[in-house]
């Protein structure tokens, strides 16, 4: 095991030590083992997977002890510590087995329930389908990857849509991103993903039919980073300038757009960006809105040009993309790059506590973001099938078996009963090959001279490597990887050292990053390097192994060229390789390859056909594969030619063709309004507000007394009741649509909503258990506005339906006309107040029906309701021994077409939100569940709907400036509370208005701490110590909101 040679040595010292080990006082562990070899057992079985840094340090101290008796005692104690590690390892393995079994049972149950709902077994076509696979007409797949078939799709699509000019948005938040001289490896956040997204943006910007590509990232203005990262925008130079405008068509190009968010003047790691995601979403939304307007003038003929897709990279950007695509109602694409659940499993296997893992990596927040990406994405792009089959299947929101079934049903036009699953697509990363010129090699292995510059000197890195070798003319086996145990370099050195024929034929070059002093590296990296140095000494490999301490990024192509010049071989022996970009780079320079059979290299070598796959744990297999390639010149030549011939399949143009064909296959959606925007020429006046908008007026003819009567009792299993309810709701929506159409014609010259012209907009989103507490906050906020009310708009945002909201307003002596708008049912409905009517049975609110069309994406409707009813039954079954009555019941009187409401009679006995989300996701149902009123109510709404998203809709639909909003919240609230805290708006946290006991019920068992998503020291967030006029006024002044001067 890598880094554990010291264990072998100190255990041998224990066995050889005297006195102490052989007498009656010797270690119980060794006495029980008898003649069993503890050295071999501990090294090969016990230590695997554990961080032994502390033990290593103890061993060094013990070995330095002069007294034999003390040294033996300390070594024996170390032996006991190893035994404890063995016990811990068994416990970890047991917990892992339980998690796996539980996940399997949950999946099987979900499949059975889904199959029962859809009343159909898997057909033969569904069984044959593989996730992410695209079948080709030919049976032979050798030398081809299935993705190539989509090129024909792209060409056919482009022929039909060549006049279209696409706008694509990419998002990658963390790290330092710029187009030239990328600082790859500067830190853990600035790595391969940075290079990938920049090259993808550049390549897409050069594709025919693509007019503009924006890569959104974080603007960093910090003293410890280069000034270029503070530039608001940067144009990316195209891949090649040889193509004509006729080939590519009209194009604006690709740009890096840097959005300021998070701590100012500070570069922070990705784990600390989570609290600032809403701020990025708000600012990115403004950018896309501005760009849509600009493009409408350039290429849209006056009509807005929306992104054809928004593509998020990594979990943080994925979370942002889900919110942004929801606010704009455009398709979302996601690439994980690396996944949180896979990392969590690996760390748990090492015995690390989950609390420690989450504290260091914010892993649960990351996982929830990735689950949201599965909820919201049209397409998930992966590099390999291994990522689908072994990593994505760990998530609640993705099941390969159910995905195949749903896809087959959609192909046949059969209903999926409200179930949705993102399409997994394998598109390997592209590469830039235009600058690569493979080194010519003659039959004797000598590199041909450059005819244009025969006197050119060899690159400096060549001499830096060659100085290690006693015979530099031998073929070079090249490995390029970090000194990480997962890269398996120690096994490679052992294979080389123990194979005498291989040592005689070849040299070994290990490019393992940059270092000045091994002691300055991390303990893991230094242990790998020390192990390699010991092996070099053990096998006497001096003069045969090169380990240069430094190299530049620009040196990497020259290192590949050197390998090809010597007729060498490139090897990637990693235990698991998610993709294997270095294999493609090596092939582009004419190097045959040997690669691990675990992960992405399987797909790569299937396409390139330029090398051999090996078991990374089989040392002999690694040596045999290397020996075969360096000794057989004909085989080496065929592999080299195959790689050079097929390498174009991994070029960026090929990647982009597949990419664009996939996006073209998405169901296109974008903001569509039933009415047009109107010129806003009327001046502000005290009576000028959204309640005066006649173009969207719709008096909801709801009888307050009638609704109260309907909510007395319901039977969840009564089909007649649900059918009647559904018919009523459909009739209401139909009536709403008809009236909306008629009012558009009647009031086509009406004014634009005046919320857009308010100086400030106060959004009251305080969640209280009692209506009296809410009214107290509302009255206080309105009172603070005082004489400035004419220039301040008011929005009431609650979990109540419109009838309950109206009753609450009236009971407090307030008028609905005191508010410009109300957001109801946890953000699933948006109403504007209209003038009071003489008919008291009519509610004075106008429903914005465009908002429903904006949020209905993947709404499960009746199928979702049935699943929730079944869940309620299971909850009752589990809790009936502890509680005699009902725990949950459906609240039909509060439910609407886009909100399913449930009454919670025993909040403390209801499963936590994370369990409910899990249940819904494994059923492939996509929604947003919210516990409200201190846990006394459950609202289930569309997946991308929320109170925060409703505010963003006001910007998209009506152009309302989010920075003018002041959101009032309590010190705790509903489970959607966190979405209201951050953003470009200002937030006042009113202390003491929420029940702490209720908060513990609904927030006590969260997936991740609320602190992980709460901005610290944000200038846009302040607290009011209590719900008093002076406290709230003081809080507003801290935020720069001067009430006295607003009327001016």
Question: Mind explaining what this structure looks like?
Answer:
This protein is an alpha/beta fold and 1048 residues long. Among the domains are: 37-115; 161-238 and 250-410 and 419-426, Rossmann fold (3-Layer(aba) Sandwich); 462-659, Rossmann fold, CATH 3.40.50.2000; 752-858 and 944-1043, HAD superfamily/HAD-like (Rossmann fold, 3-Layer(aba) Sandwich). An eight-stranded mixed β-sheet has the order 3-4-2-1-5-6-7-8, sandwiched between helices. It has an eight-stranded mixed β-sheet with strand order 19-18-17-16-15-24-25-26, sandwiched between helices. The protein starts with a helix and ends in a 10-residue tail after the last helix.
What key phrases describe this protein's structure?
alpha/beta; Rossmann fold; 1048 residues; 12% strand; eight-stranded mixed beta sheet
Write the CATH homologous superfamily of the domain at 161-238 and 250-410 and 419-426.
Answer: Glycogen Phosphorylase B
Proportion of beta-strand residues: 5-15%
Given helix and strand content, the structural type is: alpha/beta
Which architecture of the domain at 161-238 and 250-410 and 419-426 per CATH? 3-Layer(aba) Sandwich
Mean pLDDT: 80
Q: Quick one: biggest sheet?
A: 8 strands, mixed
State the total count of DSSP E strands: 26
Counting H and I runs of at least 4 residues, what is the number of helices?
36
**What kind of oligomer do you see?**
single chain
- Report the CATH C-level class of the domain at 161-238 and 250-410 and 419-426: Alpha Beta
CATH fold assignment of the domain at 161-238 and 250-410 and 419-426: Rossmann fold
